[in-house]
DNA sequence: CCACTTACTTTTGGGGCGGAATAATTGTGG
DNA sequence: CCACAATTATTCCGCCCCAAAAGTAAGTGG
C-alpha cells in the first residue's frame, strides 16, 4: 500500500496502457485486457505484477454477476483503487466558482461552490486556494487540480483571453500551484468536457466522436482516434458563423441565421423578448412551447430544425460513431426531439448509418468534473507534455 | 536484382514502413527516414540493407539540386525503383472502359481506352482481360490490376450493386483474375480516388483530409489518421440529402436544394434546360455565366454558394488539414471561385484556421489511376486483408 | 594538412513481446 | 469420487528489434 503522490511516471508504456484500460473500462480480467490490447497472456502477468505491487491495481473479489455458466479457472478481475487518489475540479463562471472532488474514475464525491466576488486574478487564485484547502481537510489524498474557464487557454496553464473575466495572459496554473502545492491544469471548459466524455463518458473507447453543447453559447469538440482535435477558434465561441438558415433570425450575437442566433439560450430569450416584449426564462419558453403557445412554439421549432441540421451535417461529414449533445440547453430535445429527428432524417441519406445521438443534461458541476478529468489525465499520462501535441 | 512477382509480404513491419515512406515521399536519405519514422540511425542501416539487396530500393546518384551549402558527409538518398513493377487501372463507365498503366509511384505510363459494347459481366471481364493482355505485351512486369466502378463494391472484389451497369453481386475480381492470372482489386470509384490522393496526391502524409468531388454526382471521402473512413452510403450517391439551401431548385435527382440538385453537372444542365428550353453543355454554361448571361450566371452563382457552404461545413466540423476538390465539375472554381471563397468565409469564424482547399481537374484516367493505386496498396501492404478493416 | 561536421555502419546490450510448458481452479461425465 | 476438459494465470526461454555508443567515410574550411 504505497501512497506515491507523484504520478504514474515510472510506468513503462505497456504498464501505462494496462492501467489506462482498467481505469477507463472498469474491472477487467487479465485475459480480457490481453484481448483488448492484443498482448499475450504472458505479457499481462509481467505488466500487471508491478502495478499490483505498487497498489495501483487490486484483484477484486469477482462480484458474482458475471459468473455465467463458465467452466475453467475463474478469472481474477483487476481494478483500479479509484478512491486512492482524489482530484479537484473547478469551473469558473462570471459570478460563481463551482467545485467538485472526484475519484480517479472521475466520480463526483463532493460538490462545493462559492460565489466569486472579484475578478482580480490573484484574489481569484486566493479563493481557489482556500477552497482547495477546505476540501483537502476532508480529502487528504488530493493529487491534482483542474480548472475550466470559458475563453482562450494556452499550454493548459495560461488564460490567454477571457472576456467575461476581463483577463488577458493570466498565468492561472502558476498562481494556484503556488497556493496549493498541487499540480494544476487549466483548460477551456468545452475542451475539458470533451476530454472527460472521451475518457469516462459517452465517448469511451470510440474512434470518432463529436460533442455539441448548447447553452449560453455553442460548443463543439471532435475526437478522432481517441484524441481531441485542437481547433483554432475553439476558445472564441463556436457557431457564430455556422449559417444554418440564411433567413433565420438576427440576434445580438452571431450572424443572421447562425447556430448561435438560433440555438443558444440568450438568443432564444432575445427572440421571445423582441417579439412579445416579455422576458421569459429558457425553461418557461420550453414549457409554453410544449403547451402550444404560438410564439415560443415557432422559435423552438426553428431551433429544433437548426439543431437537426447541425447534427445531420456532423453525421454526414464526420461520420462519427456517436454524437453527444450536452449543455444547459438540451431541454430542447425533450420538448422538440421529434422535430430534431425529422430534420436529421431529412438531411441524411436513407441508406446511411443511423445517427447515434446521446443527450446529456449538464449542470456546472459537470463542467467542473470535466476539469478534474484533465488533472487525472496529467497524473496518468505523465505531466501534460504532449497531451495536446498535434 | 531479384524480380519477385509475388508481393512485399516477407518484409518485417519495420522494413515495410521504410519502403512505404520512400514509396510515398520520394527519394529520402537514411537519416531523413530515421527522422520521419523516429528510428535510430542504426536501425535504418539494418532495415535498408535487405531492401537494397532485394533490389526494391536503390541508392540514387543524388541529383545535385538538393545539395545546398551543407557540409559533412553527403547523404545517400534511397529510392524505390518505381518502374520495376507496373500496374493496370481501369475505370468502367456506362459506355467506355478507361485504362492506364502506372508505375509503383502511380505515375501514368500509358493510357488505353476502349468502348464498352456490352454490360454482360462475363463479356466485360473478357474485354478487361483482352485489354490487359495487350498492355502486358508492352509492360511485361504487370503486378496487379485495380478496377474502379461506380456503385456498391464489397470486400474489394464483388460489385454488389451498380445501377448504370445493371449489375448485382457480380464477382468481378474473380472473373478478371481467371482471365489474367493477376491479382485484381475492385473498388468503388470514389473510394479509389480518395485512396490514391491519400497515398500519392494531395492528402499525402496528412492526418485529416477530405475529398469532395463534383461531376455526374457528388462524391465525398474522409481520411483520418491516414486511413479512409468507410461510410455506409458512399456507394449509393452522396449529397442527395445534403440540404444546402432549402429554397433551392428542385431537380430530378436529389431533394430540393440538395448538393446534388445544386452542384452536379446533370442538375445544372437540367436547371438551364428547364428555364431556357435550351440544352447546353456544362462548359457552355460556365462560359456564358462568365460572360454575364443572366440565367447561367444565376445558376452558377447559386452552385458556387452551395459549394462554399459545403466546404465551410466540412472545414467547421471535420477540421481537416486540406480539402481536395476534384471531379469533372471543378471548372466551377475557375468561373466562380470568388463567390465560393466569399461564401466559405461567411460561414467560418474569422479567427478559424484558413481553409486549405486544393482543386484538381480530373478526367476519367485519374479515376483509372485511382484504381491502379489500390493494386499498388495490395502489393505493398500484403494481400488486401485488413486494409478496410474498421 | 588538420580540425570539424554530417552521414552511415557495426557492435553491443537490454527491454519487451510471443510462445510453450506448467500450475491453478472449476465444471462435466462416467 | 476420479479422470478429463476448459479456462485463467504464471514461469521461463528465445527472439526481435531498438537505442546507444563507438567507429568509419566523405566532404568543407582554415
Automatic annotation (TrEMBL), chains A, B:
Record-linked InterPro entries: ATPase_NBD, ROK, WH-like_DNA-bd_sf, WH_DNA-bd_sf
Organism: Streptomyces phyllanthi
This protein's name: ROK family transcriptional regulator
Top-level taxon: Bacteria
Family: Belongs to the ROK (NagC/XylR) family.
Amino acid at each position: 500500500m504505497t501512497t506515491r503522490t507523484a504520478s504514474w511516471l515510472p510506468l513503462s508504456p505497456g504498464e501505462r496502457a494496462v492501467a489506462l484500460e482498467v481505469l477507463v473500462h472498469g474491472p477487467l480480467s487479465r485475459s480480457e485486457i490481453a484481448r483488448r490490447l492484443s498482448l499475450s497472456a504472458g505479457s499481462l502477468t509481467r505488466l500487471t505484477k508491478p502495478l499490483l505491487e505498487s497498489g495501483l491495481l487490486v484483484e477484486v473479489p469477482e462480484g458474482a454477476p458475471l459468473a455465467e455458466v463458465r467452466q475453467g479457472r475463474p478469472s481474477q478481475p483487476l481494478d483500479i483503487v479509484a478512491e486512492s487518489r482524489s482530484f479537484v475540479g473547478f469551473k469558473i463562471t462570471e459570478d460563481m466558482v463551482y467545485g467538485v472532488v472526484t475519484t480517479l474514475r472521475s466520480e463526483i464525491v463532493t460538490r462545493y461552490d462559492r460565489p466569486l466576488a472579484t475578478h482580480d486574478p490573484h484574489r481569484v487564485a486566493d479563493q481557489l486556494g482556500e477552497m482547495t484547502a477546505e476540501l483537502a481537510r476532508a480529502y487528504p489524498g488530493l493529487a491534482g487540480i483542474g480548472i475550466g474557464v470559458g475563453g482562450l487557454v494556452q499550454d493548459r496553464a495560461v488564460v490567454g483571453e477571457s472576456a467575461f473575466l476581463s483577463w488577458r495572459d493570466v498565468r492561472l496554473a502558476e498562481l494556484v500551484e503556488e497556493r496549493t502545492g498541487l499540480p494544476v491544469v487549466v483548460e477551456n471548459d468545452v475542451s475539458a468536457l470533451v476530454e472527460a466524455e472521451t475518457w469516462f463518458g459517452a465517448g469511451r473507447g470510440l474512434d470518432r466522436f463529436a460533442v455539441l453543447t448548447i447553452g449560453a453559447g455553442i460548443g463543439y469538440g471532435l475526437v478522432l482516434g481517441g484524441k481531441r482535435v485542437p481547433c483554432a477558434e475553439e476558445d472564441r465561441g463556436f457557431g457564430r458563423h455556422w449559417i444554418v438558415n440564411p433567413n433565420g433570425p438576427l440576434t445580438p450575437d452571431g450572424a443572421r441565421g447562425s447556430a448561435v442566433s438560433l440555438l443558444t439560450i440568450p438568443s432564444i430569450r432575445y427572440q421571445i423578448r423582441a417579439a412579445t416584449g416579455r422576458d421569459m426564462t429558457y425553461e418557461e419558453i420550453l414549457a409554453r412551447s410544449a403547451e402550444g403557445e404560438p410564439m415560443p412554439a415557432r422559435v423552438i421549432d426553428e431551433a429544433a430544425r437548426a439543431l437537426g441540421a447541425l447534427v445531420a451535417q456532423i453525421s454526414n461529414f464526420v461520420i462519427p460513431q456517436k454524437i453527444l449533445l450536452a449543455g444547459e440547453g438540451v431541454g430542447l430535445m425533450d420538448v422538440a426531439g421529434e422535430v430534431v429527428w425529422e430534420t436529421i432524417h431529412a438531411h441524411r441519406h436513407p441508406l446511411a448509418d443511423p445517427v447515434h445521438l446521446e443527450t446529456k443534461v449538464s449542470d456546472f458541476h459537470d463542467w467542473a468534473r470535466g476539469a478534474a478529468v484533465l488533472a487525472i489525465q496529467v497524473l496518468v499520462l505523465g505531466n501534460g507534455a504532449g497531451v495536446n501535441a498535434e
